[in-house]
Amino acid sequence: MDYKQFVADTLAPALTDVLSVEDIYQKIERPKDTSKGDYAFPAFTLAKTFKKAPQQIAADLVEQIDTSKFEKVEVAGPYLNFFLDKAAFSAQILGEVLTQGADYGQNQAGNNGNVPIDMSSPNIAKPISMGHLRSTVIGNSIAEILKKNGYNPIKDNHLGDWGTQFGKLITAYLKWGNEEDVKKDPITNLVKYYVKFHKEDVEHPELDDEAREWFKKLEDGDEQAHQLWAWFRDESLKAFNAIYDKLGVKFDTYNGEAFYNDKMQAVIDELKDKGLLQESQGAQVVDLSKYDLNPALILKSDGASLYITRDIATAIYRENTYHPAMNLYVVGSEQMYYFKQLKAVLTEMGLPSAKNLHHIPFGLITVDGKKLSTRSGRIILLDAVLDDAIAMAQKQIAEKNPDLPNKDQVAKQVGVGAIIFGDLKNERMNSIDFNLEEQLKFEGETGPYVQYAHARAESILRKASDVTVPTDGAKISDPEAWETVKALADFPDIVVEALKEFEPSDVAKYAIRLAKSFNKYYAHSKILADDAEKPARLALVKSVSTVLKESLRLLGVQAPDEM
């Protein structure tokens, strides 16, 4: 039950002439101090309407409504404070969680609509760095949140697998490369060849001519060029997928830039047919002045296409293939203007899904306040960070729980989970100054803290294995349980809000709040005391374990049963 709606419906008969139920609902507040009730209606918003003092309006309202379903309803100055019936409320919420299990909070608002998510998108033959982490884990979490809201997400790793750099790489490999080295460590060696090319071409500019020739061969379908390109791509993908496996991230498609090569001429033709292309200083552009945007450059003066040409082709392909309910691009905030242009061009072209194209920007990852950059040498390899996190988790677990079964598996879940959670607990537009030690702490607002709360709940349930947990939740009168029960009741709303703003941090912050509330409850209550309410307390513990695990899952983080 939506108890906020219940409060609104209770007030509605007394306010039917002045406010709709929806208006009442919007005005209802949640007091931070629970001694002032679970919900509050501010009567001062009606002072002008009723031409009365707010205190009098509140006093009048309490006389006109049915308060029998509440523990009590009090007038406190201009507020009408509603205190829920704790026993009935807890029985209902715990019953819903235990009956629905991992499906608690699931809704079907998306009606199974397809939602392509453009995410991660590393460049072939280059390492996946910490700079790729945010797009990958934000996109993955949004996919899970979409599923929870009834959509069908399609995770698309739009690889950077085309461009003039492949002419350089083919040239470098043929001159200095070794097949065995590439198979052994593809990314390290392909990068080494690429770097060597750029050093050598300073004194040997003819290398650039060779590279241009090889890329032209690749574009023209030359067998050797294409074979080498495909090999570089396959070897790179093997290395990438080893990292994605550690992160627990899977993709539905890897249609990279190369996939759209044969689809760009159709874009140019359509733009021409619709009269959208204009010449500007020899180049071809789409005028976007009516959107207060600069012209979108579609073709350079030499006829070469640009990223936007390819992205238009991509959007059209996704439209025709998936008929998307939404089309999402999880790309850094520095590209915000570009995506405004892309959306405007697609709107001008009449693409149906253009109105539901959303760029989901995010802030930078920095280390010691400094931006990561490949050119300046400030690059931190994601694979190495994941390994460090797992090693650090292993050390902590060995100290805390040396007899833990499956220590290595748990260390991986904790170490990798700490990095993912450490990213997603931040509002995505905020920049993050990465600190591995802070993210791996078992205390504070961290992934391990939430995971440990879940493991603690599971430990209690194992100790109480002789007691059947009632699926109807049962009534719990323990006052210490109240904040935890209310937090459990909030989860379905969090699922909806997180999607509305494309904000995984809503889920992460909720998980921290629920974990804190449960830990406080655990510290102040004798959960396993043999009395009449023991089954109800265990129902609460089981519900917390279920919702913490599901919250972590929506973030792409695993929840060990023991730590």
From TrEMBL:
It catalyses: tRNA(Arg) + L-arginine + ATP = L-arginyl-tRNA(Arg) + AMP + diphosphate. It is found in: Cytoplasm. A motif ('HIGH' region) lies at residues 122-132. It comes from the Bacteria. Residues 5-84 form the Arginyl tRNA synthetase N-terminal domain. Its EC number is 6.1.1.19. One of its GO terms (molecular function) is arginine-tRNA ligase activity. Residues 450-563 form the DALR anticodon binding domain. Its main location: cytoplasm. Keywords: Aminoacyl-tRNA synthetase, ATP-binding, Cytoplasm, Ligase, Nucleotide-binding, Protein biosynthesis. Monomer. Belongs to the class-I aminoacyl-tRNA synthetase family. PANTHER family: ARGININE--TRNA LIGASE, CYTOPLASMIC (PTHR11956:SF5), ARGINYL-TRNA SYNTHETASE (PTHR11956). This is Arginine--tRNA ligase. It comes from Secundilactobacillus angelensis. The lineage of its organism: Bacteria, Bacillati, Bacillota, Bacilli, Lactobacillales.
